[in-house]
Amino acid sequence: EAEKLLAVAPDRFVAEREELAKKLPDDGRGDAAAVVAELRKPTAVVFAVNRAARDRPKPARAAADAAEQVKKTQLGGDPDAFQQALRDLEEALDLVANVALAHVAPSGKNATDAMRRRVRDLLRAAVADDDAREALARGALTEELDAPGFSPFAGMPAPVDAWLRRREPRY
Asked: Which terminus of the chain has a lower count of CB atoms within 10 Å, N or C?
């Protein structure tokens, strides 16, 4: 139910959230009602990106898959594969961004530079995080995210360079 609510236009979001939060307990779904009641109204940028992902699910899924491929090739030692993965990611993000920008711009006008930046920042942040990447693919982001960059090394011990291991101590 919460994901369906994220597809509602921002100007109708609050009224529909309240209606759904009242209806769910009557259906015996009080826990879902609490989750719905806590949802914040998405910004215009979040709404536009979610709508773009729902309107164009293939590019949204392609962006998520390409981001995963970037993570894999980053450690794989094949610079050509890594560059191709980056190109695939940029292409997929461009498609989703263009659709999102069409939704965020007033009718008949172009999106502002600030809106373009916010859409791109949100897309980059979403593909860099495992959970957000899947939410993007479903069109179910709940907030604008900070772009932390890719962290394929998260949770891995820091490598010790071979030259450091061979090096004799200086006295």
From this structure: C
